[in-house]
Amino acid sequence: MLLLRAPLSVPISDHIELLGVKISSKLNFGKSIESKAKVAAKKLGILNKVRRYFTPGQRLALYQAQVRTSMEYCSLWGGSAKYQLEALDSVDRRARRIIGDNSLTQAKLHSLQHRRNVACLSVFYRIYFGEYAQELHNLVPPSPFYHRTARHRERWHPYVVDIPSTRTKRFFIHVSDTCR
What DSSP line would sit under 93-152, residue for residue? Predict the structure, then answer.
């Protein structure tokens, strides 16, 4: 039996969605970050409405379990523009006000920016020491060998990585802010 199928048409789109992450044709995560921030803000709004029924410790636990998890998926994108990540950071700041106990949030809750920096450094460490694919490891330039020593270089870590100078401020901000 021969089955004939109608031709399949693929719609043209300016973005693609993979595993719940929207990536634009310019490899930008902006739409995905916006949608995650909206979902987190809605969840936080519900937490705000029922805040009088919970203690600050319970509100913190609810925030970490219900709201923060949806934003943590986005927090690995440390290379995104600051204005895009500001939506997530705004939800995080609002949550700290709703929880209400500054000493509790400072002791048990790191900022999203801090968590993005830690994730960035963790990925860089794995790439640098070859724990990821060899192709990524080969992209990291070898540590420079300096023929002349300087006193300030004696204090450097043996695995120091020089950040190459850039001619545009755009890329300088990206490199220095994400993995500091």
Answer: HHHHHHH--HHHHHHH---HHHHHHHHHHHHHHHHHTT-S-HHHHHHSPPPP--SS--HH
